[in-house]
């Protein structure tokens, strides 16, 4: 009885140590329910769209073609004032004091 308990524990640890190539969850692919499912992306049986290799390829191709085909113009009107001093803070970097500008992400310091 003790040996069957340790044997089932080792099987569980082996199954949960790898992610399933059919669905990306942590179990044995041979017992995965997705082996009987149709992928929503490529319509092939045996995996989910989450792990579909065709969807990853299409995303890259679509992104590249959109960048190549799209044309756009950027216009920006604004006033930039150099009257404000940037906020800086001295920081010790390997024994040297270096003044770093604080980047708050805001276009102006208040």
Automatic annotation (TrEMBL):
This is CCHC-type domain-containing protein. It comes from Photinus pyralis.
């Amino acid at each position: 009885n003790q040996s069957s308990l340790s044997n089932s524990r080792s099987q569980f640890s082996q199954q949960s140590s790898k992610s399933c190539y059919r669905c990306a969850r942590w179990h044995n692919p041979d017992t995965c329910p997705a082996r009987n499912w149709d992928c929503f992306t490529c319509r092939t049986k045996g995996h989910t769209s989450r792990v579909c290799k065709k969807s990853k390829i299409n995303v890259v191709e679509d992104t590249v073609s959109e960048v190549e085909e799209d044309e756009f113009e950027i216009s920006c009107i604004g006033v930039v004032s150099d009257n404000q001093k940037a906020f800086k803070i001295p920081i010790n970097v390997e024994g040297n004091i270096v003044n770093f500008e604080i980047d708050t992400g805001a276009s102006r310091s208040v």
